[in-house]
Design goal:
Layout: H1 10-26, H2 37-44, H3 48-60, E1 64-67, E2 73-76, H4 82-93, H5 100-120, H6 123-138, H7 143-160, H8 164-176, H9 179-182, H10 188-206, H11 210-231, H12 233-237
Antiparallel strand pairs: 1-2
Helix pairs in contact: 1-3, 4-8, 5-7, 5-8, 5-10, 5-11, 6-7, 6-10, 7-8, 7-10, 10-11
Length: 245
């Protein structure tokens, strides 16, 4: 099998790892500039081509951005789940996995997240969850707002679980499984059902009842999967394709 052209050479990968280690050691934050190229060449003892390969890789991973022009260069940014979503999408595409795969993954993951939320979620996240529910209720006639709040609700639950892995996984999965993009429609009765489910999950989390929160989320995702399978079976069986939306 030929080498992946998007994956840096071994030396460039090692240099990329050292750059990230140095970012952590220096305590760099978002917006900080990294040392100029000449200093990095000296520190890492590599050629310009290898260093630039390392920096391009880190830019693709969302760790830095490369600003052009005088005073430019590598600047630290906050990584998000977009790179993870792309990697997962490509892995799933080359495994001929259907969209059902994502729905089943959510069915397994999100009840655990809700359980953790009932144990750990902060008051600020609880407030944000309530705001999402109220915004959805006030805009049930508007599918665009409904979809936005649906995603926001699940994002808050994922990150509110106190487990960073869950947060990034759900961000990535929701990025792949965007109902509006893959052809799943939400008539008003389904929007009302989703809103009611979100409220039940919220109340269980607010009551600090882990078992009830997990059960409510499991039922919510299960109902979504049943609805999609019944009304849009061809969508659920369609292969995941990168850039399909």
């Amino acid at each position: 099998m030929s080498a992946n052209p998007l994956r840096p050479t071994k030396t460039a990968m090692l240099v990329a790892q050292r750059i990230v280690a140095d970012i952590n050691e220096r305590g760099n934050v978002v917006g900080d500039r990294l040392p100029p190229e000449r200093l990095m060449l000296e520190k890492y003892d590599v050629g310009r081509g290898t260093l630039r390969e390392s920096l391009r890789f880190l830019e693709l991973q969302g760790v830095i951005t490369l600003k052009p022009g005088p005073g430019g260069g590598p600047v630290v940014v906050q990584p998000d789940a977009s790179s993870l979503a792309t990697s997962l999408t490509l892995l799933l595409q080359f495994s001929d996995a259907p969209f059902r795969t994502i729905a089943e993954a959510r069915l397994g993951l999100e009840p655990m997240m809700s359980q953790l939320c009932a144990e750990r979620m902060s008051d600020d996240d609880l407030k944000a969850l309530k705001e999402s529910i109220d915004t959805m209720e006030a805009n049930l006639q508007n599918q665009a707002i409904f979809l936005e709040e649906n995603k926001r609700f699940h994002d808050i639950v994922a990150h509110g679980s106190g487990n960073a892995m869950f947060g990034y996984l759900v961000d990535a999965l929701l990025g792949i499984l965007d109902g509006s993009a893959i052809g799943i429609e939400y008539p008003e009765y389904r929007r009302e059902a989703v809103h009611a489910a979100h409220r039940e999950i919220y109340l269980a989390i607010e009551s600090r009842d882990p078992a009830a929160a997990a059960a409510a989320m499991h039922e919510h995702i299960r109902q979504y999967v049943r609805y999609a399978e019944k009304k849009f079976p061809e969508v659920m069986e369609a292969p995941i394709v990168w850039g399909q939306a």
